Amino acid sequence: MPKYAGRKAVVLGGATGLGLVISKRLVEGGADVLVTGGPGADLGAAAAEVGSCAHVVRCDPADPAAVEALAPVVEARLGRVDLLVVLTSAGCGDPAFNSVAPADRCRPTRTP
Asked: Pfam families this protein is in (predicted)?
């Protein structure tokens, strides 16, 4: 049985780069995946590369309204989320982001 069979995953920033690689591996492992891509991402190319078990949608992670609007899309397409991968640099140009010490930005977060 594939490693992620029956799992539902969301990959924010999954249409390009490392996120695309992770999205492909999750699909290859049997997961049902919802992949998001920001304004510059080629969603058609991402959908073709990731495969038919993925839902690819546009979501600008720097736009709070777009992120909030993503929740009902995730619920409608996946029903639940078992895995969440966040690969985005949204907000990195914001002075508030740069006022945080690099060690604090990289601190591991424990989740249940």
From this structure: adh_short
> In sequence order, which residues have a C-beta less than 8 Å from that of residue 62 and are 6 or more positions away?
38, 90, 91
Residue in 30, 100, 34 with CA at minimum distance from that of residue 72: 34
What are the backbone angles phi and psi of residue 88, rounded to the nearest 5°? -150, 150
Q: Which residues pair with 57 in a beta bridge?
A: 36
Residue boundaries of the structural domains of the chain: 8-105
- Closest C-alpha among 30, 87, 81 to residue 53: 30
Q: What CATH topology corresponds to 8-105?
A: Rossmann fold (3.40.50)
pTM: 0.76
- Token couple for 52: 């038919």
Backbone angles phi, psi at 42, to 5 degrees: -90, 95
